[in-house]
Amino acid sequence: MKILAIVRKELKEYMLKPGSISWGLIFPLVFTLSFIVRFVDVDHLAPGLVSISALFATTSFVASSLIFERRLKTFERLLLAPLRYGEIVLAKVLVGALFGVMVSIITLLTVAGFLRYGISHPVLTLIVIAVANFTFSAFGVYLCLAIKNPINIMSYLNLLRLPMIFTGGAIAPLSLYPTWFLTVGLVTPLTYSVECLRFSILDYYDIIPFEYSMLLLSIMGMLFFVLSIRTLKKLY
Questions:
Q1: C-alpha–C-alpha distance, residues 56 and 120, integer Å
Q2: Who is most buried in 18, 90, 212, 228, counting CB within 10 A?
């Protein structure tokens, strides 16, 4: 109940913040529409476009929340409440994931209208979207807590997110790139989201089987979640 109360509060306060709207909603949708208009065959782009939407939506939302709370010194109110560090982090991660799921589904529905063969595994696609958004949200929370000056959070986020569009195989399959580039992609969480969605939407994978991609995506999510708790304890 305490975690759900924080989630409701966060959604009301930060869903319409400029950062959440511009980078979390408008950018992914404009990015998606630009590729739909440019390419007639968008099937191979669908997994990457949905993954990009999830990445930018979740991280932008949690960044908007933590930037305002850390700058205005209101984050300390949560620490004074009868809440554990893990509960605070879980609430932050869940609210970012919920916003990301909403944007991801909007993107998926937009792309689905242009797919030649439709979505191969609809239920599995929704499960992957949920797991991917949790992982990206945990990644965003960890990064926002790890950066000492909240003013620099968006700069560091874009420094990591924008290269991920290419290193994660969202635009072109990683199998087309040289080996050293593939190595970079294997440490990128976006890679595993794209691979999972490629299987659930198109029923094939590029370099990593679905089972391993799903497992590694989940492990990364839990890793970022644990790192966020440890960082929060060190920060306060």
A1: 25
A2: 228
Contacts of 203 (CB under 8 A, 6+ apart): 120, 121
Of the candidates 172, 28, 174, 175, which has an alpha carbon nearest to the alpha carbon of residue 111?
28
Which conformational region is residue 203 in: left (phi greater than 0), alpha (psi within -120 to 50 degrees), or beta?
A: left
| Distance of alpha carbon 166 from alpha carbon 162, whole angstroms | 8
- Measure the CA–CA gap between 232 and 221, rounded to whole angstroms: 17
CA pair distance 35, 233, nearest whole angstrom: 42
Give the integer Cα–Cα distance in Å for 53 and 106: 9
Cα torsion angle, 210, 214, 215, 219, sign: positive
The total number of structural domains in the chain stands at 1
Q: CA geometry: angle at 110 spanning 205 and 49, to 5°? A: 40
**The whole model's pTM is what?**
0.90
Q: Is the pLDDT of residue 39 over 80?
A: no
d(CA 95, CA 39): 34
Tokens, residue 62 = 């949690």
Residue 174 domain boundaries:
2-235
From residue 17, alpha-carbon distances to 13, 68, 119, 137 in Å are 8, 10, 33, 17
